[in-house]
Amino acid sequence: MPLYARLNSRYSGLTLAFDSSFAVPPTLVFNLLRGFDVAALVSAPVLLNADPIWSLAIGVVVLVILRTGFNLEEMSEQAKEQQKLLDAEKAARAR
User: If DSSP codes are grouped into helix, strand and coil, which group holds residue 29?
Assistant: First the structure.
């Protein structure tokens, strides 16, 4: 079975970006680019002649943020609740 047929069966439903040699799923291409932003953020203090401890501190903060993750559903529920409170406060002030 040719490589393009295996990729098509494996990634059915995804659009494929075709290269001269084989097909590449777009998600795979973007996964290759992931991580450069964190590397740039952590190495920026050293490149700007700051103390290397800043790089370590930024790295720890980024690690903590990425490990804990974000719950988008919980955040949207909190936003809706806060919007309701804000609307109630506006209505109380309008009286």
Answer: helix
pLDDT tens digit sequence for 10-23 = 555 555 555 556 66
Helix boundaries (H) for the chain: 3-10, 26-33, 36-47, 52-68, 72-94
Q: What predicted TM-score, i.e. pTM, was given to this entire model?
A: 0.46
- The residues, any chain, with a CB within 8 Å of residue 24's CB and separated by 6 or more, are 7, 16, 17, 18
DSSP state of 25: -
**Model confidence over 15-46: pLDDT tens digits?**
555 555 666 666 666 666 677 888 888 999 99
> What are the structure tokens assigned to 11, written together?
């990634």
Locus of tokens 């501190």: 57
